[in-house]
Specification:
Helix 1 runs parallel beside helix 3. With 438 residues, the protein is of the alpha+beta class. The protein starts with a helix and ends with a strand. Helices cover 77% and strands 8% of the residues.
Length: 438
């Protein structure tokens, strides 16, 4: 009896010890996981606030609309408290605190860059804020912020995993209690099942929350992309209208002045031809100069707004464009142009695309032959420009290649699709497919 009682007491004491150790470790692991989850959420919130601030800043810089400053100001007001909160969370961990210091430095630099550009925009310093906007400094800081945020989030996830490992260790200790006392083992197993279920439910809820946030962010990105596309289309239309207005002014005003001057010179020449040979020679030179000025004005007017589109149609306009470009550049250009059914805006889109393509060939392709084709199909029209130049790697085209980006935007704004095919040493092919006018 004494031995049995002693064994029972020892078993009970062992079970109590195991339970106490398991409880303490589980509590510490749960607290560590909770802290890691809180840290991860604060990091995600900081990145989102930086994105909101940058979006508001760029919206205000591009449009000048003060309404864009509302999300910018809200994000700027919340970023510093969030940094203080994160610093308190990382203070007990020197390695993570060092990483957070780097993150905080980049955040401060990015905030200073955004604040400077907004102040320059408010003060009307166009050159300053545009220079800041076009530099890569802001992008470098945002990339660094994402990189350090990812590292800190990874450390939080690692802390959660260590907590889970610690919890599993406590469960192993509980199984030892099961071997000594069946009831205690069953109770520990039941608690294990409850705890596992709670963890799975928590993970499921977190996954659903992340999916909702991802869907919301994707929706916002799509909306903002669509808004920027509309703005770019509007600016492009305004630019074409301004070019058309300038072309009309040059044609009506400057053309009339040059023609009147040419007629006056002709009258003077007819009167002075026999009396003053030297004056007649100078008048002949002046007539030649006026003819060159009239030709230059006509070429500038055609570049600004091709009148041949409205008078001769798209095929004839492209024929004139390619012939004049071939004469200027020495390039051999063959054409295969069909009559097509396109609206005025779409015709101008095709004309500008071919014009930009020929300009790129003359500047970069180092080609001696090119081909321009325009074909009519049922329901759509194709435009193709090819050359036998040196070509390029499509992956090397950066964001500063505004020519290709502008062509693609024009074609897509007209409801079409632009495809660029090129390889080093194999020339370049630019193909646009546009829907016919309804």
């Amino acid at each position: 009896m004494a031995v049995a009682m002693l064994l029972a007491v020892l078993a009970a004491a062992l079970l109590i010890f195991i339970n106490e150790v398991s409880f303490n470790k589980s509590t510490a692991a749960a607290a560590s996981m909770q802290e890691a989850q809180q840290t991860r959420g604060a990091i995600h919130e900081l990145v989102q606030q930086m994105l909101d601030a940058e979006t508001g800043q760029r919206g205000y810089l591009l449009t000048g609309d003060p309404r864009y400053l509302e999300p910018y100001d809200i994000a700027m007001a919340n970023i510093k408290p969030n940094l203080v909160k994160l610093r308190l969370l990382f203070t007990p961990y020197p390695e993570q605190l060092t990483e957070f210091g780097l993150l905080s430095s980049h955040v401060s630099s990015k905030l200073a860059e955004m604040d400077l550009s907004v102040r320059m925009r408010k003060e009307g310093n166009e050159d300053a804020w545009k220079f800041i906007l076009t530099t890569d400094v802001g992008q470098e800081h945002m990339d660094a912020i994402r990189e350090h945020s990812t590292k800190l989030s990874a450390s939080s996830i690692s802390k959660m995993e260590r907590g889970q490992v610690q919890i599993r260790q406590t469960l192993l200790l509980s199984r030892i209690g099961i071997a000594t006392m069946a009831l205690a083992g069953l109770l520990a197993f039941y608690l294990y099942l409850l705890q596992t279920k709670a963890l799975l439910a928590s993970g499921q809820r977190e996954q659903e929350s992340l999916e909702r946030e991802r869907d919301l962010l994707e929706s916002q990105v799509r909306q903002r992309t669509a808004d920027l596309a509309k703005l770019a289309t509007h600016l492009q239309n305004v630019r074409e209208e301004e070019r058309g207005h300038l072309a009309r002014e040059l044609h009506d005003e400057l053309g009339s002045l040059l023609t009147a001057a040419k007629l006056d010179v002709a009258r003077l020449k007819s009167r002075l031809a026999g009396n003053l040979p030297e004056a007649a020679e100078r008048l002949t030179h002046l007539t030649s100069t006026l003819n060159s000025g009239i030709a230059l004005a006509r070429r500038i007017v055609e570049d600004l707004r091709p009148s041949s589109l409205s008078h001769l149609g798209l095929p004839a306009s492209l024929e004139i464009l390619t012939r004049e470009f071939a004469e200027r550049s020495g390039l051999s250009i063959t054409t295969d142009l069909e009559s097509v059914d396109l609206g005025g805006t779409a015709q101008l889109t095709v004309y500008r695309m071919v014009q930009e393509s020929l300009t790129n060939i003359g500047k970069y392709a180092n080609a001696n032959q090119a081909e321009v084709s325009l074909h009519d199909f049922e329901g759509y029209v194709t435009v193709e420009v090819k050359d036998n130049g040196q070509g390029f790697k499509l992956g090397s085209v950066g964001p500063t290649s505004h020519g290709l980006a502008g062509m693609r935007h024009r074609v897509e704004a007209a409801g079409g699709r632009l495809t660029v095919t090129s390889a080093e040493g194999s020339g370049t092919q630019i193909l646009a497919v546009l829907p016919k006018a309804s």
